[in-house]
Design goal:
This protein is of the alpha/beta class. It is built from 24 helices and 19 strands. α1 packs parallel to α7 (101-111) and α20 runs parallel beside α21 (491-501). Bound molecules: 2'-deoxyguanosine-5'-triphosphate (DGT), calcium ion (CA) (2 copies) and zinc ion (ZN).
């Protein structure tokens, strides 16, 4: 277990003890211990191995022993017992915004509330408002927090759904009774947020497949189990549906369950216009609803179904009834970008600001993965909470990057780190001067502290785009999926300004952001604004986000030519010079 994981458990122990009404000094010792761990500069494993935990500030014997146990065994019986001794509903109540351990304890002690449902009932009949230290206002806040939680409990980020769906799909693929299988629904369409996961299988032995599915290690509980379908809850509380069909039905069922619903309705209408009937079982030569196999038009794959309806194959990402039919008929469907077209990422962080890894480690990974380049764009000084770099530190970083690059050049490798900054957009301009920006390979301008006014935020972005040294705008809308809405901002006006100034826009590939939203990329493309698919990596494993971001770019109808970081290094450098050259002339 690493220091952050251990720290998280210490914080949780502190909270649980507070719930139990333990003395505040004891609970605070855990939270302080966690902070100390988070701030460590040497590996925690090393400190434990050398028996030096006692040297850390505030680490008494009890804390030392617990941390050592966690680091060496990855478990802590004390914590598990503690957690088990409290009703699970109390711990769930802590998830509610604005409800801490003190409040939960009071609600439990005085009203006997031990679940969110009981808390809601107590709010509705005014018992919470009547409690000492609560009042009408906090009662209303709790009701809102419960509603908020409900709204999001059934929606999940794509990355979380993929994490639980992919092992199940792999497992199904290996089962001898499975002929063909796929995910379907919003997951296959690569929506940034999904409701439930859909799996489709073709098989001659549905019962075996269903039994195998509900017995998967990722299955937490079984909601329904029938002869050809089942519903389960997977990890993270995500629901998954499985349908099993005969192999002749598979292409039709796959198209149907991939959706979207709007896309399906249009498909069905195209069938009717041709004197046919389309449903999840097939395409039938019939003018009324049927499942008669004798009437089925043979289609081996989805693309045959599309062909019967006068269309080229429409990739799942485009199936939203947002123009794919018109474009398909006209032969204008784009040839979508593939994630393997990407040659590097131009917005990333290192341990010089709030990233986890050293320049050397970052370069080594990118090089090993066969990428051509990787830009280091740490935060600028105004992002002090992210340890942003001032001008002196940035100049020192330029030297450090050059040092890393020298070692690649000496080995005869063409891989390069690129220098850069994610410079903060401030009220009155950028956080770094033009002379320094001009020295950087890559400049990403981002707004981290927005104004409350739409016109003001729009103005700040437009000004940033007008700066000749700014290559691109980062995570434009500032949204955090399922957490925070977009800033108040006229995104189209900013896109227009980018078009006018030759500024690019990032598609931030973090699955918490996917920003710019896929729905706006066609507008940007129409205006001639180029895209960069950037990981905004803070850890080595975030390199995997290139694939996720490329999927969102596909959803935005983007091709390889629309995305700048598909270019090899020399061509990229030429593109990076263009806006600056234009300004000089
Ligand atoms: P989600 O799960 O809310 O993220 O979105 P989907 O698109 O995965 O929706 P889901 O799981 O309810 O259903 C999967 C697909 O099945 C959906 O994309 C289209 C198809 N489907 C479901 N219900 C209907 C319907 O009433 N009419 C039509 N035409 N298709 C439907
Ligand atoms: Ca679904
Ligand atoms: Ca479903
Ligand atoms: Zn940022």
């Amino acid at each position: 277990m690493d220091k952050d994981q251990v720290a998280a458990i210490l914080v949780e122990i502190g909270t649980l003890l507070e719930l139990k009404g333990e003395n505040p000094f004891k609970t605070r010792a855990y939270v302080n211990g966690a902070r100390t761990l988070e701030g460590l500069t040497e590996p925690l494993e090393k400190i434990v191995a050398e028996n030096r935990l006692g040297e850390l500030k505030g680490f008494g014997e009890a804390l030392q022993e617990k941390v050592a146990t966690l680091v060496t065994t990855g478990r802590l019986p004390y914590y598990e017992t503690l957690k088990g001794s409290l009703p699970p509903g109390l711990i769930e109540m802590l998830d509610l915004q604005g409800v801490g351990p003190k409040k939960v304890k009071k609600l439990h002690d005085e009203l006997g509330v031990d679940s969110i449902e009981k808390l809601e009932a107590a709010c509705k009949d005014g018992r919470v408002a009547a409690l000492d230290g609560f009042g009408e206002k906090s009662q209303t806040k709790i009701i809102e927090a419960i509603a908020f939680r409900r709204q999001f409990a059934s929606r999940h980020r794509l990355v979380d759904a993929l994490k639980v769906a992919e092992p199940v799909l792999e497992s199904l693929r290996g089962h001898p009774d499975v002929i063909r299988c796929s995910t379907a629904g919003s997951l296959r369409r690569w929506k940034e947020v999904i409701g439930d996961i859909d799996f489709l299988v073709s098989s001659k032995a549905p019962a075996e497949v269903i039994a195998f599915f509900v017995g998967q290690p990722g299955v937490r509980s079984v909601l329904a189990q029938g002869e050809t379908k089942a519903s389960v809850i997977l990890g993270e509380g995500i629901q998954a549906d499985l349908r099993v069909v005969a192999d002749v039905e598979y292409p039709f069922a796959l198209a149907y369950f991939t959706g979207s619903k709007e896309h399906n309705i249009a498909m069905r209408q195209r069938a009717i216009a041709r004197g046919l009937r389309l449903n999840e079982y097939g395409l039938f030569r019939s003018t009324e609803e049927t499942r008669d196999p004798a009437l089925r038009v043979a289609c081996a794959e989805e693309k045959d179904l599309f062909a019967e309806l006068g269309l080229p194959y429409i990739p799942p990402e485009l199936r939203e009834d947002l123009g794919e039919f018109t474009a398909g008929e006209a032969g204008d469907l784009p040839r979508l970008i593939e994630w393997t077209d990407l040659k590097g990422s131009l917005h990333n962080h290192s341990d010089w600001s709030d990233g986890r890894n050293t320049l050397e480690a970052i370069a080594a990974q990118a090089h090993e993965l066969g990428l051509d380049y990787w830009a280091i764009t740490d935060h600028s000084r105004a992002s002090f909470q992210a340890n942003g770099l001032d001008e002196d530190r940035l100049r020192r970083q330029l030297k450090a990057v050059a040092e890393v690059n020298r070692s690649y050049a000496e080995e005869g490798s063409d891989f390069r780190l690129l220098t850069g900054s994610e410079v903060d957009i401030l009220k009155d301009g950028l956080d770094l001067g033009d002379d320094l920006l001009a020295e950087l390979d890559v400049v990403v301008a981002s707004l981290h502290v927005p104004a409350s006014d739409e016109a003001e935020n729009t103005r700040r972005f437009i000004r940033a785009a007008e700066n000749p040294f700014v290559h691109m705008l980062g995570h434009l809308s500032g949204r955090l999926l399922l957490e925070r809405d977009a800033y108040k901002l006229d995104q189209r006006a900013v896109i227009d300004a980018c078009a006018a100034t030759g500024t690019w826009i990032e598609l931030n590939a973090s699955p918490y952001r996917f920003d710019l939203d896929w729905r706006l990329w066609r507008y940007a493309k129409e205006k001639g604004v180029k895209c960069l698919i950037n990981c905004d990596a803070h850890r080595l494993e975030h390199v995997a986000w290139l694939r996720l971001g490329a999927g969102i770019a596909r959803k935005g109808w983007l091709t390889k030519a629309d995305v700048v970081n598909t270019l090899p290094l020399a061509a990229l450098r030429a593109e990076l010079r263009k806006k600056r050259d234009r300004a000089v002339r």
